[in-house]
Amino acid sequence: MNIFIGNLPYTIKANDLKSFFEEYGEVESAKIITDRDTGRSKGFGFIEMLNDDAALKSIEELNGAELDGRTIVVNQAKERQGGR
Q1: Is the separation of the CB atoms in 10 and 41 below 8 Å?
Q2: 3-state DSSP helix/strand/coil percent for the chain, to nearest 5?
Q3: Three-state DSSP class for 71?
Q4: What's the rounded Cα separation, in Å, for the pair 83 and 22?
Q5: pLDDT single digits (tens) 7-56
């Protein structure tokens, strides 16, 4: 299951995000979305978890949680419609 994480601290790295979610199950991938011109984090990212039950539990428990002083938004990622 692909999970969207919003309102991330701009200093967080993909490995940190992965470690944060591994408490709930195996994380296949973690990605922080960055600005292509500056390389700076855009404040959101994605986690891919193979086990849907673990993914749903992480969404339920981490949505609204605090990470480095910011309240994060966690929900199931929606497929992009059209776009790039």
Answers
A1: yes
A2: 25, 35, 40
A3: strand
A4: 31
A5: 999 999 999 999 999 999 999 999 999 999 999 999 999 999 999 999 99
Whole-prediction pTM: 0.90
If you search the block for the tokens 């949680």, which residue do you land on?
Answer: 65
Helix and strand counts by DSSP (H, E) for the chain = 2, 6
Q: Which residue has the tokens 């490995």?
A: 15
Segments in the chain forming alpha helices (H): 14-21, 52-62
- The tokens 């849907």 sit on which residue? 52
Contact 3, 73 (CB under 8 A): no
* Residue 49 near residue 55 (C-beta atoms within 8 A): yes
Question: Alpha-carbon distance 68 to 49, whole Å?
Answer: 22
Q: The tokens of 48 are what? A: 């891919």
